[in-house]
Design brief:
Residues 210-356 form the UvrC family homology region profile domain. It is built from 18 helices and 13 strands. With 418 residues, it is α+β, with helices and mostly antiparallel strands. The strands form 3 sheets. Strands 7, 8, 9, 10, 11, 12 and 13 form a 7-stranded mixed β-sheet that branches. Strand 1 (18-23) and strand 2 form a beta hairpin. Helix 12 (213-229) packs antiparallel against helix 13 and helix 15 packs parallel to helix 16. The chain is elongated.
């Protein structure tokens, strides 16, 4: 599929979570992925450096594809579960070739009076000497493969908050386990729930993993009404909580993972490249702009770049940023960043986002807001993306400011000599 073909289609792609498909001849499924924003995610496949940003295998798949389709979901969590189910059904070559399926993760439900819900690696399922066989456990349900192990762990935290389940505790041991005290185990260890009641919870989890959300909501609503009719008000309140949680899934922890970076062809995670931009001028004249790079916490000064502002009006900082970023994105030979830092608030952030949209790129942008003494006061942007990267963001911003001022002074001195 070409960029022109994609541009004709992209307006119809929703800015919402879901699963997407690259299709080849005879609608053969070549690749399946999930996204926080289907529109932004699909747009990211049609950039000049796709082989570097994603992998040569993915670049080849995009060229081979003839059509794109998608399924919208209500949350990122549901997109993750649907992605695993569809990969299992279609077994797309581009998905399975990116990673050995034995290193994928699976969610299994054991065959016991009080079933466990466990995350198991593919190689453990395949080996007779695995932890499952050593515990003499049989499974009733296996869900997966899940390509993203870290995201699966975050997803299971969300699922467990909605439907507390057993993983390691001993049933009816007479004392509550630690997870029960946190509200993550229904109390099979303390005898707080019967086997029949617990199996109902497991059925709810199965419906969720099967993508049968409507059926699950109907079941919960029916059970809630029945409990209220029997005057079992605590049970009805818990079912009401589960209903609400499913209708308002809090999956911000999954959204942040969307930007941790794709894998290379060798399966290694790309380094964390941050690019920061700033400009400098003297009462609107002799305007210049700069780009600096911080990679994995270190300033990469050999990759700093200078720009003479040519088209932006005097004193138009947002316009200068747009010009610099547009000229930077014209350099296909430069690696793309995973985060862009601008000096300023919403106006600068929005200016950068508009340029990125014009280039069909979905790179997160954050802005560093300063006080009256030009000291960092706040970092604006997705708080989940910012968390843990504050030092690198502020380093990049400080370097951009220092480099811009230095470049402007040198340029001003040369002009004075002339």
């Amino acid at each position: 599929m070409t960029l022109d073909q994609f541009k004709k289609k992209q307006k119809r792609i929703p800015d919402a979570p879901g699963v997407y498909f690259f299709l080849g001849k005879n609608k053969k499924v070549l690749y399946i992925g999930k996204a926080t924003s289907l529109r932004d995610r699909l747009r990211s496949y049609f950039v000049s450096e796709i082989a570097e940003v994603r992998s040569p295998l993915i670049a080849k798949m995009v060229l081979k594809s003839q059509k794109i389709e998608w399924r919208h979901t209500d949350s990122v969590l549901e997109a993750l579960l649907l992605e695993a189910s569809l990969i299992k059904t279609y077994k797309p070559k581009a998905n399975t070739d990116l990673k050995d399926d034995k290193s994928f993760n699976y969610v299994v439900i054991t065959k016991e009076e009080y079933p466990r819900v466990l995350i198991i690696r593919g190689k453990e399922l395949a080996q007779k000497g695995s932890s499952l066989s050593q515990l003499s456990l049989k499974t009733t349900k296996i869900f997966g493969p899940f390509p993203h192990g870290a995201q699966l762990k975050e997803a299971m935290k969300i699922v467990r908050k909605i439907f507390p389940y057993r993983d390691t505790c001993v049933p009816t041991q007479g004392r509550p386990c630690f997870n029960y005290q946190l509200g993550l185990c229904p109390g099979v260890c303390a005898g707080a729930v019967s086997a029949q009641e617990y199996r109902r919870t497991v059925r709810h989890i199965v419906l969720l993993f099967q993508g049968k959300k409507k059926q699950l909501l109907a079941a919960l609503n029916r059970e809630m009404r029945l409990a209220a009719k029997k005057e079992e008000f605590e049970e009805a309140k818990e079912l009401q909580r589960q209903l609400y949680a499913l209708q308002h899934i809090q999956d911000i922890s999954l959204i942040k993972d969307e930007y941790r970076g794709p894998s290379t062809a060798l399966g290694a995670t790309r380094s964390m490249r941050i690019e920061a931009y700033d400009s400098a001028h003297l009462r609107g004249s002799s305007a210049v702009g700069v780009m600096v790079v911080v990679e994995d916490g270190a300033a990469e000064k050999s990759q700093y770049r200078k720009f003479k502002i040519k088209t932006a009006k005097a004193g138009d900082d947002a316009g200068a940023l747009r010009e610099v970023l547009a000229r930077r994105l014209g350099h296909d030979e430069w690696p793309l960043p995973r985060l862009i830092v601008v000096d300023g608030a919403r106006a600068q952030i929005n200016a950068a986002k508009r340029v990125l949209a014009e280039y069909s790129m979905s790179i997160p942008v954050v802005g560093v807001v300063k006080d009256e003494k030009h000291r960092p006061r706040n970092i604006l942007g997705d708080t989940v993306l910012i968390k843990g990267k504050e030092r690198d963001i502020l380093l990049a911003n400080a370097e951009a400011h220092r480099f811009a001022i230095g470049y402007h002074r040198n340029k001003s001195r040369r002009n004075l000599v002339i």
